[in-house]
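Input record (Table S2, row 340):
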Amino acid sequence: MIAVAVNGYGTIGKRVADAVSLQDDMKIVGVVKTRPTFEARRAIEQGYPLFVNCAENMPAFTDAGLKVEGTLDDLLKLADIVIDCTPGKVGIQNKPIYKSAGVKAIFQGGEKSGTGDVSFNAMGNYADSIGKDFVRVVSCNTTGLCRTLSAIDKKLGVKKARVTLIRRGPDPGNSKKGPVNAIVPNPPTVPSHHGPDVNTIFPDMKIMTSAVIVPTTLMHLHTVCVELNKNASVDDVKEIFSNTPRVILVKASEGLTSTAEVMELARDMGRTRSDLNEIAVWDESINVVDGELFYIQAVHQESDVVPENIDCIRAMMNTVTDAKESVRKTDDALGLKKWW
Ligand code: NAD
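Output record (nicotinamide-adenine-dinucleotide complex):
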């Protein structure tokens, strides 16, 4: 059993903890909070040992009546690996703590790519992370792009990809961020950071990205144009996506006309927190014109990176060396689309 700690129990951390708990080869030995919030209380109710990031924050938990098992340092003594799910740029500050505790660490996409020895995408470059001590799972948007582009690249060859990312403002549980009534080029520069981030997984892929943020919380949406090396029909592309892990086809003709209905589908599927770990590609959007492929996909930012974190644990702990085997095991435990 791999002993897993989660440092930073927010949007991503609580989902990763729940996903770890569903696997038969790993278990949660503790989660770390900085403040005694409802999420800290829920962690205890779910049976996760609760730890605090530093001793000086401990009294606030005691005052709130929450039982704390110790500090991050205490937790690291129990863990084989820590999943750092703290806000962007905090993970890099934690790296020396993990290093001196001799514990492997996974960082998230909010950290710079150099924070890990390598970046990770399960079907993209699993093998690169085998046995590594520090790895960064790429962001939700980069994960979405890697999933579909790698599938296309393997079968048809990507000569060049151009992507416009329409990004959500805040996550649904965040009442402090906007935009409320604006469309924000973010970053304002082209390429956005997403293309270079895809290159941390596929160094040779020619990709150009630009991004805007809009007033929505549900999902990101990508419009993708790909110049192909091989001729392909629309049906060929649909077949590729149908057989790709963690990608689903959705039909506007069945009422899935926007990200709102796609999220409703996730609710109807009984997914925890209405998560959709898979990337949703609109069936009708797939087109091939003069050797160029077009499609539109939606990315559930809060959950698509969760299965990748699970696979990354197995790669770094060197318990499963075959990417497909780990992905199948993870997807089976999480009840995701059957692709095998
Ligand atoms: P979040 O703000 O929802 O959660 C972060 C948690 O870490 C909070 O509970 C916060 O209190 C806690 N925290 C802050 N400082 C801490 C510290 N020093 N020690 C321990 N805990 C601390 O953030 P999130 O959305 O879960 O993002 C976490 C990481 O995942 C970031 O790198 C982010 O870029 C990345 N990510 C986020 C999303 C998303 O859509 N939310 C998607 C993919 C990747």
